[in-house]
Amino acid sequence: MANNLLAGKRGIIFGALNEQSIAWKVAQRCHEEGATFVLSNAPLAMRMGEINKLSEECNAPIIAADATVVEDLEKVFSGAVEQLGGKIDFVLHSIGMSPNIRKGKGYGELNYDWFQKTLDISALSFHKMLHVAEKQDALNEWGSVVALSYIAAQRAFLDYTDMSQAKAVLESIARSYGQRLGHLKKVRVNTVSQSPTKTTAGAGISGFNAFYEYAERMSPLGNAPAEACADYCVSLFSDLTRFVTMQNLMHDGGFSTTGISEGIVEAITQASAGSEA
Ligand SMILES: NC(=O)c1ccc[n+]([C@@H]2O[C@H](COP(=O)([O-])OP(=O)(O)OC[C@H]3O[C@@H](n4cnc5c(N)ncnc54)[C@H](O)[C@@H]3O)[C@@H](O)[C@H]2O)c1
Questions:
Q1: Is there a binding annotation on residue 15?
Q2: What is the pTM of this model?
Q3: Which residues are the active-site residues?
Q4: Is 32 in contact with 2 (CB distance < 8 Å)?
Q5: Which fold has domain 10-276?
Q6: β-pairing, 188-194 with 88-93?
Q7: Which GO terms describe its molecular function (predicted)?
Q8: 272 CA → ligand 1 middle, Å
Q9: What is the reported pLDDT for 206?
Q10: What pLDDT, in 10s, does the model give residues 149-194?
Q11: Where are the domains of the chain?
């Protein structure tokens, strides 16, 4: 259902790897709503070639960038302004990676060099993006910047290891830079805290299926799918949410404010009946 909510708006979408990616769905929805945008991802991810399909579908140029490298980000922002023909109205940061999770290190045995890499890729890259956008004066007034987060920033989820700290930093950057860009340019900066979602990054976390199911049973509305996250991002990029800024917005079907649900009570009751039998 398209409503032309983003007609005439120009954007940059970071992090579409394949059809499962949340950024992929956001790109498709932004296209439907009339936006033009540049797609960006790490050179390594580009080699998989999937992004070319999305680029064709959305008529969106691609500019490769390692989001930890400021010079790469400078090229993305200046290239986007040039290729799209004006300043940028919206940016999506949909980037996350932990070498510790990739290599199966538990929380008690983290490699600290990798920990720093996790923070650089998954959190500091957001600061670098906002910094480059500010220095280049690349954002339009009343623009909107969104990064994707997860509730492990507030609550302990052991298998999420150092990504929990990365998300806490990410959310804090959204507040600090939101304050700065609000004053300077009337630009809003928010994070969306999304339900567990079956993507490449999601599936990399050990025990993912269990906490996907747990969140599904806990949330009154069920887990929010990637498509719904894309709808929410569109609303945040649109002019309908111009005074929402410096927030961590829960997009989780009610998970974060549920204590216990009937589904969990039933599951535990059944499991304990089974163990007593
Ligand atoms: N999948 C979930 O359960 C879930 C839940 C909440 C939040 N999120 C967040 O959503 C965002 C998108 O993840 P996703 O689930 O769509 O998975 P995904 O694997 O499709 O996306 C992660 C992206 O990060 C990119 N990336 C990694 N290192 C990079 C670098 N150095 N420079 C540029 N890009 C780099 C990858 O190429 C990939 O496109 C992440 O921030 C993730 O933490 C995911």
A1: yes
A2: 0.97
A3: 150, 160
A4: yes
A5: Rossmann fold (3.40.50)
A6: unpaired
A7: enoyl-[acyl-carrier-protein] reductase (NADH) activity
A8: 37
A9: 78
A10: 999 999 999 899 999 999 999 999 999 999 999 999 999 999 999 9
A11: 10-276
